[in-house]
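TEACHING EXERCISE
Course module: macromolecular assemblies
Task: Read the component lines below, then compare them to the predicted structure of the full complex.
Student: A.B.
Group: 4
Components provided:
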Amino acid sequence: MLNKILELASKNGLLKKTLLPKVKIDQFNIGPIGLLLQNNLKLEWFYNVIINKDITVFPSDNNMSDTFDYAKDFCSQKLPFGIAEMKAYKKSYNSDEIIEYYKKAIDTEKLCFEDLLRHEENMLMKCTIFITPNNSTSFFHQWQRQRRMWWRKFSASPGKYSLSDIRSEEDGTQFVEISAKYDWGSQSLETLVLDKQDRNYSSNQLQFKEKKFMQAHTITSQVNLSTILLNSICDAFDEAPFQDKKRLLFRFHRKLAPYKISFALSGSNQASLAELNDLAMYLCKQLRSNHISTLFIPNSSRLTLDSQYQQYDQLGIPYTVLLNGNTLKNGIISLRSRDTTLKEQIHVTELVPYVEKLYRNY
Amino acid sequence: MLNKILELASKNGLLKKTLLPKVKIDQFNIGPIGLLLQNNLKLEWFYNVIINKDITVFPSDNNMSDTFDYAKDFCSQKLPFGIAEMKAYKKSYNSDEIIEYYKKAIDTEKLCFEDLLRHEENMLMKCTIFITPNNSTSFFHQWQRQRRMWWRKFSASPGKYSLSDIRSEEDGTQFVEISAKYDWGSQSLETLVLDKQDRNYSSNQLQFKEKKFMQAHTITSQVNLSTILLNSICDAFDEAPFQDKKRLLFRFHRKLAPYKISFALSGSNQASLAELNDLAMYLCKQLRSNHISTLFIPNSSRLTLDSQYQQYDQLGIPYTVLLNGNTLKNGIISLRSRDTTLKEQIHVTELVPYVEKLYRNY
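Instructor-supplied answer key:
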């Protein structure tokens, strides 16, 4: 199952497959379409964690301690506040270890998303909230729910995401994991920690005054960008029965989809196809001017409509605009939904506002 | 002048000043607020270059050649298309060189934006467009105008951006620079190159068939993220006369501003201040739920209104919501503009849709 997903993702530019020469094992990088997906995922993480509705969170460079001091001062020594960091990092495996690892992972389908992609691409995304001891436990629970909701919000099957039980250490530190259940086993995604004496900061730094002096607790969420990316690829994969055959596709959430709109053309002769091609290009420019990521492949009309749809479904594009002979007569276009395969008809002048409306909400 | 800008930027978390111990020279990193600004700049670059209205551009990892092959295949061997890369890189100076460099730069105010920030933070942003020889020259000119327009769009004084004359090499390669004119001299920002035999790709790769076989030309735009960041800080700096004094502020474009909205409170007694504080917090949550980056500093009301405004102006926040005693009676709030210092009155229930409208367009 996982192999099938990785194959389809590589075929469609989400991943990039490289054969390790000696041992003939496939290794995966992020492909061009995958980078678009990753960019959307980063942005949604940013919206959820940094422009977080409850607490002011400051982004940080690698020096979290400096940022902490800045934030503490900025907030006039008042809790709560948070700091967040996105940090590229490398894991150093030697290549024999990598090969051994891949072999085992691919054979048993028991692997960790974090390790499947080549390691130079990895990015740690970490957010730490500083909070008074009185509020820390209730906020820890709220934060758990909020983060699980984030994973569910973008999922084609939200039920697969769950929180582990809380594991406590002797010093009072509590750990919770968010994981996703797949056919091939459970996949750990994110770690949440409530720490009553965070060693990354000095006890002097963590001292705050509110009526009396106390030491701030920290609540930390930690996740890898490549884990998020691979999870959204696996989550979106679907094999749906369709007209006696199987339809393979990626059901990306519309906020995450690398491309939001594509074009399918069907014309009876060369002249009308050329005209439809120009119309599609014009509509594509209009959509892109509104920052809607739009795919237009010139001359895609040489393929049948079904193969055009198939390609777009496998790229996970939520809606395809169908232009045909009638469009040139009456200006009516069809908007085909990837998920339902149904079409609705709208006038060509209404495309941009209609698409904006479709993509506004979650 | 530059020193004054760097001071103010460091004071407000856009930059972070570190004193090099032995020689007592200041060195600069990006501060927490600067990271928010940088994030917005990256996003706008992404919108302009990747979701570019004319040509399909694919993001790339470090292996541009792989991405090229993918893109060529994806576009059924048809020109034009493009690939774009964001790549972290380090410059290796030894520390004596750095110190020498900084000394000279700060003294003479003749420095290159790229080199002012610590080097580990630097990111190269590069976009290459592949195009037929017939169209390359006219597209090169169009691309120059388009990129200059991008710089001007976000500027408080667009006149300072200009294109250099075209410099041609013997093999036909053409270079153009976009630069900005400051008090302390001209600052080079972006390089545009039209290359007729791009050596980064094999002649086999660059061969396309369109009626007959030909070699694609490439048009490349190259810029550093730290250059963009420092330029937008310097561009936004302003010293405006105001009520017999001088008002120092950053006039960030509303799409770039690290925070879009802040709150100023003014109340006559403790009870009404506490109520206004709760209202501000509620409005802040509403705005953030709509992904509007909003700053709320609890208990900022201990400062006078003027000092609150001063802080927000120096953070470059375009609008501040003023809540006062009347707000509790009739629900009217004032929205103060950073640029004009004028206020307009709106009802509290209209804040979110009104702010969304303010920030929708460029």
